[in-house]
Sequence to fold (118 residues):
Amino acid sequence: QVQLRESGGGLVQAGGSLRLTCNVSGVGVRTEAMAWFRVKPGQTPGKKRELVAGMTRSGLPTIVDSVKGRFTISRDIDENTLYLQMNDLKPEDTAVYYCNHLMQVYDWGQGTQVTVSS
Fold:
């Protein structure tokens, strides 16, 4: 059974940085295309969530335009962990952040709250 545990969120001022961590068990981050997603305030999570950044099995990153140049996705294969480095945070980045397979096929974890104050 795949389990996803996100951490690292918090309250920061605009322009600040956070590093999110996703501890993955039950599947390898090297063998699956993994990604970070988010749900902004007022949005209904539903089945599909907003993609923020993804990484293919070969390690090729994909960053959506809204965070390009500010967010970086990476992984530690030995630790089976996915990361999201977020720099120059903006109030519109406020959301609950989740990790999952790029196709969102696993059960969702609890997510980690990121709040950016102006």
User: Anything to note?
Assistant: The two ends are 40 Å apart (CA to CA).
